[in-house]
Amino acid sequence: MAMRRQGPCAFAVGLAQVPASRWATRASVYRALVRAQAMIDSDLGRRLTLAEISREVGLSPFHLQRVFRQTFGETPSQYRSRRRLETAQRLLATTEMPVSEVCAASGFSSLGSFSGGFKARYGLTPSEFREKGSRGGGSRR
Asked: Which CATH architecture has domain 80-134?
């Protein structure tokens, strides 16, 4: 699995957010968190469990959940949902794929949960977003 490459500034900023007293511990935990993000990003449609992710990155599920939230401001599940919605938003804005195909391509198994989540995040249904975007006035938070 490939890790996302980060510049030294991004690494330092992220590293500063990790709760640990020793620099080496912070660096190790931060690398594990970045691997967890990459693992989630690699297959947004697969519902990875916290146990699977934690086993892969070498942290306990509780510790992974806690330090992920402290470092990135969201849980691994929230991160996955946000990334799926961002993927859907990009597909709606840049392709002519039907909304049902965007739903599937973004990793959602239900059109209802996709539409509800999209509207909660962006204030518009996927169809409304696409229509407004085609007129040049899409609303994006």
From this structure: Orthogonal Bundle (1.10)
